[in-house]
Amino acid sequence: MFNLLKKDFILLSGVSIFIVICAYIDSIIGFILLKANNINIAYTFGIIGIVFILIVSCIEHDGRNKSQVILNSFPIKRSDIVKEKYIILIVFILISSILFFLLTNIIKVVSHKTDGRAIGILDIIVAIDILLIFYSIYFPLFFKFDSNNVFNSILFILVLIAPKILVKVFDRFEVERILDMVESLNSYKVSIVIFIFSIAIYCISLQVSKHIYLKREF
After folding, report:
1. What is the pTM of this model?
2. CB 90 within 8 A of CB 127
3. What is the pLDDT of residues 1-27, one digit of tens each?
4. What is the Cα–Cα distance from 68 to 91, expressed in whole angstroms?
5. How far apart are CA 57 and CA 67, in angstroms?
6. Where would one find coiled-coil regions in this protein (predicted)?
7. How many CB atoms sit inside 10 A of residue 215's CB?
8. CA 20 to chain centroid
9. What would the pLDDT profile of 159-189 be if each residue is shown by its tens digit?
10. Distance CA 213, CA 211 (A)
């Protein structure tokens, strides 16, 4: 298991600088935005975008090098191969969240901008919820078909343009009233409930993926 995780980290060393630059740019954008909803979108999709780039990089490298076939020729449990992908996602989420937390707080101290804010715990929780639910669907499909290059490319484009689309939607339509109603509820309680739900879905997805992968032929 450890060697599988180590493999993905070594493969991603080449994109580490690019990831930091992307996170830095998104942190600046989020910090200078004035509307709270736009800031939330910038930070949340910043984390999602970074994690998505990392996961796609791993999967595409595995696809180019026939890693799944090679790994199954070694005495490695198939269940460990599946678990590694689920664990590496959690690791990438932690790395991305910590990176944004550090960058936005550094920018806040250096810029002395009084009306800007660093990333908040709710921004991180929302990003985690979206990522866990999305990959709970994605991973079983990946382990079933293992040919998602086109799918990955489409999703990558969507992640890039989604923040701009959402910002325009918030600006054009009066959805702030709806958000205010949601916020009038206890946002922390709601986020905790959704967070627990997303973890439960993720655990179920892991079992489904293991069941699929154990039956798969190479």
Report:
1. 0.79
2. no
3. 667 777 677 767 667 777 888 887 877
4. 21
5. 13
6. none
7. 9
8. 15
9. 666 666 666 665 555 555 555 555 555 567 7
10. 6
